[in-house]
Amino acid sequence: MEFQEMKEYLLEQIGTKQLVSATISQPRAKSNEVKRVKLKPIEIKNTYHIQLEYQYERVLKHENITLNAFTEKLDELLEQFRQLHIDFKAEKVQAQLSKKNKVIWKSEKAIDTKTVDLSHNRKKNYLLDENTPYPFLIRLGVQTPDGKVKKQKYDKFKQINRFIEFIDDTLAYLPKDKTVRILDFGSGKSYLTFALYHYLKIEKELDIRVTGLDLKKEVIEECAIIAADLEYDQLEFLVGDINDYNDETAVDMVVTLHACDVATDMALSRAVKWNANVILSVPCCQHELNTQLDAPGLNIMLKHGLIKERFAALATDSIRAEILNMVGYEAQLVEFIDMENTPKNILIRAYKTGKKPNSEQMASYQQFKQMLNAKPFLENELKEYLN
Ligand SMILES: C[S@@+](CC[C@H](N)C(=O)[O-])C[C@H]1O[C@@H](n2cnc3c(N)ncnc32)[C@H](O)[C@@H]1O
């Protein structure tokens, strides 16, 4: 196929709304700032558009153009890049261009004729794409350098994606007029801290400053090296204990993922005291209530160690959520990731509302606590907010 013929064919296919998705890559000049462009159709105000996602070294930028503007855009893209992978509804196309625009063209029928979801905000847009190389995922060993998710890291990849969906839901609650301050307590190897940074800073281009805190010095040092390598200059890592971390006055989002036992409560209480707009917390082992539980009415459950442990964990999270509800948050317990991947799958998600609790709510909390003989650590931490 000749170059001109190829161009006309592509314009005809795209002009008749056959595009499902495309990736245009291999810059002709090494100095090209844009490394790859992804295309997909979207509908904006009832008009068909093509969305272009430009991948720079560390940033993604988006542009939406009408079909009329696409002819010129295609010329521009073909001047800059030499490789095209395109999924049309009924055909898969691969084209390689030489320096002088000789075309190697491969095309095959699509196995199934594809339908296209044109909605602008489809959830999929927010997730990390399986075949796109992301510098942080490569550096953390989740992806190979060409963007393939490593088999043994697939669960982690799914968890990261799920977490980013939750982060996306928080956008409306974050301040727009200042640097958004985010703390990740017990950040460990920090897969999710890097993911959060990538999503908010690189993809959403928000002005944020993130700190990951953990007890483990070596792990934190390694994370700091990775952040420096990636030039994530607003992401820092500190060695420290959640229980002693008192260095902030105001924080906008507090994240704790699998921080052990009452370290989760300490992080929640800090978040409330700092007036955080958003709290995302997946608790880990919950021993506190397990040792306090004394509820004769529940003996047929609690005499089984396994059930007692699980019950204590569920009751602890219910108590945590209720306390947050009583100190001005709207707190929900939602599934973080399916049980296949981890049994620690309850996320406490709380958004600041400032709403005061009513007496009925307070009474039912007291009743529940008394029934179990529970003396919640978090209640003690937040007693001045509960009175
Ligand atoms: C199970 S790991 C989870 C790491 C990471 N948040 C994740 O979800 O992949 C729990 C981390 O919390 C840290 N941690 C537990 N208690 C802590 C405390 N009191 N202060 C700081 N870090 C703590 C541990 O060192 C560990 O790295």
From TrEMBL:
The reply on keyword NAD is no
Q: Which residues form a coiled coil?
A: 60-87
Where the record annotates domain Methyltransferase, the positions are 155-292
**GO MF annotations in UniProt:** methyltransferase activity
Matches recorded under CDD domains: AdoMet_MTases
**GO cellular component terms given for this protein:** cytoplasm
Cross-referenced InterPro entries, in alphabetical order?
Methyltranfer_dom, SAM-dependent_MTases_sf
Q: Which GO terms describe its biological process?
A: methylation
Keywords, sorted A to Z: Coiled coil, Methyltransferase, Transferase
**What is the protein name for this chain?**
SAM-dependent methyltransferase
> Which source organism?
Psychrobacillus psychrodurans
